[in-house]
Amino acid sequence: MRFIRALTRYVTRYDRGTFALSIAGSYALIVLGTVAYVAIATHQPGSQGLEAIVLFAVTAPASQVLMLLPLDAPEFLFSLPALAAVGLLQAWLLWMIARGRRTTGFPVGVPALS
Predict the structure, then answer these.
(1) Is there a contact between 26 and 17 (Cβ–Cβ < 8 Å)?
(2) Pairing with 6, which of 13, 19, 69, 81 sits 20 to 30 Å away (CA)?
(3) How far apart are CA 52 and CA 79, in angstroms?
């Protein structure tokens, strides 16, 4: 409960904080859900590993830049955490862009932590 209260105080410091949290948080949950899906699906018998294309599509702009790294052989053990990190980085960038300017003082209706 204390974490939610602290998160609410932090988010409401910005003009569009709740809107930005809904966008960035939703995208982060989609990325984490897709990572879990790919990790489970690729370890099933008969899997060709093509499920990772879904993760590549979800993290699209930054994952294409990640593919330009000079690696000898793209290993699954490296690419899954790297694509997850890139997706969470994009979620953080969405938060930074969408949150707006910082407001002065505490917003009305949000109690201060004691």
Answers:
(1) no
(2) 81
(3) 9
